[in-house]
Structures are given as C-alpha cells and as structure tokens.
Amino acid sequence: MSFSGNYTLPTLVTALAIGFQQLIKTMNGDKYVREINQNIFIIRGKMILLIEDNFDVRENTTEILQLAGYKVVTACNGKEGVKLAEIQIPELIICDIMMPELDGYGVLGVLKKNTATAGIPFIFLSAKEDCGSKKSVDADAYITKPFDDGNLLETVKKCLRKNF
What we know:
Layout: H1 9-26, H2 30-43, E1 47-51, H3 55-67, E2 71-75, H4 78-88, E3 92-96, H5 104-113, E4 122-126, H6 134-137, E5 141-144, H7 149-163
Parallel strand pairs: 1-2, 1-3, 3-4, 4-5
Helix pairs in contact: 1-2, 4-5
C-alpha cells in the first residue's frame, strides 16, 4: 500500500484499517474483521460538535477526536453551539456544563425542543461530578474532567452506536 498526494486523516485511517483487515483475514480472523468494519462505519464521516469555553480543553479534545478520525466543529459558548447544531446537524454533541452566555443545561434544553436536533446524542463534559442530577440524566452520557483519551473515545463510540 503506497500513498501519494494529499490525504485527510479519516482517509488514511480507513486505508490503514483496510490493510489491517486484509492481514487479519489471512490469519483466519473473520470475527476481528467484522469488529473493525463496525468501528470504521461508526467513525467514518461522523461529525461531532464540541461546545467548550476553555480554549485548552477545547483544543486538546478536538485533537483527540480528530486523531481518531472524527470531523470536529467547535463552539466557545452555548449560544454559538446551539446555532452551529441547528445549521450543521452533527451526529454527536459534546458540551461543557458551566459556560458563559448559555450553560450546557440550557443548550440541551433548547436542542431537545427542536425536532431537527432533538435526536442528536448528547454528552456532558464537566469538572463537577453531577451525573445523578435530573438535568444530567437527560444527556446520553457524562464525562468528568479531567478525562483520559480512551474514556472519551469509548463514550463517543457508545453514543454513536446507540443511534446507528
């Protein structure tokens, strides 16, 4: 397998996965090929909206998601996030709770009232452990900061699997 020209990260990830599939098939690993195919389906072309007011957290989280092959659109506050969600219609939203202008609970409330965005999986991202409150229960998942890359990516995959 050789690469020439400009390729996007998702294209390269897919190409590597296909090469890996071929290797596994030669080793009689059909079960693993099915699992890889399922994961490629979940990742390929999936756009995630990340709403986070902290620049460093927003940039680091974006990088983690992009390296995993996701397309990421970002917003630095809740009002901007709601506008982007209504225009872009992402496959998943990751949203901080405590933000200026419109907090994460407000974002979730507005989006759940809109038929175009009501079904989008929603993950809360917060420094406070609040996953038991009524407002947090309305989200599909809750990740407490600081988080590790693996936990973030596994939560994202689970939420995307639920909807597809």
